[in-house]
Amino acid sequence: MKYIIFLLIVFINSNLFAADDLFIMGERAFESKANCAWCHGVFGDGKGHPRSPGIAANLRETVLDEELLTEVLNCGIPGKAMPFFNRKAYKDPAICWDTVFDDYEKEDMPKKGDKTLSDQKVKAVVHYILVNFKDRGKVTKTECEEKFGAGTKLCKKYD
User: SS3 for 151?
Assistant: First the structure.
């Protein structure tokens, strides 16, 4: 009986650590590798860097679910600024709506992201978005201070 309880505890803890690792991997990819924060902002509110295109979706208000977020990360959005991050996108028609590069006019073709993401990193970014942003409402001062530290001037605008 003790052995079964021990295995159960190990299993539960390993799943918690795996979810935590996925979150951390997603946060890193969102903020640096894929550079999603450049357009979507560090809080996912669509208020990215002032030199970004400035038209990013507010991920805090997104209606997209896990499957659709995965599709958007893999394939981008044709005709919009959202790039694709799957290295096989538009080469393998099975990935993006049974389409390839030649199916698009040049101006409608999504741009390739600065870096490609593995399937695991796409999954991690989607997990990070769903846990950290989706349905969170407006950015709060508390949330800002958790990210940048208590009393930082950056968070005064959230009073």
Answer: coil
Identify the three-state secondary structure at position 112: strand
pTM (predicted TM-score): 0.83
- Please give, one letter per residue, the 3-state secondary structure of 71-84: HHHHHCCCCCCCCE
* Nearest by Cα to 129 from 60, 78, 54, 35: 60
* Per-residue pLDDT reduced to its tens digit, 28-46: 999 999 999 999 999 999 9
What is the DSSP track for 41-58?
-TTSSS---TTS-S----
Torsion-angle region of residue 122: left (phi > 0), alpha (psi -120 to 50) or beta?
A: alpha
- Nearest alpha carbon to residue 68 among 136, 134, 114, 116: 134
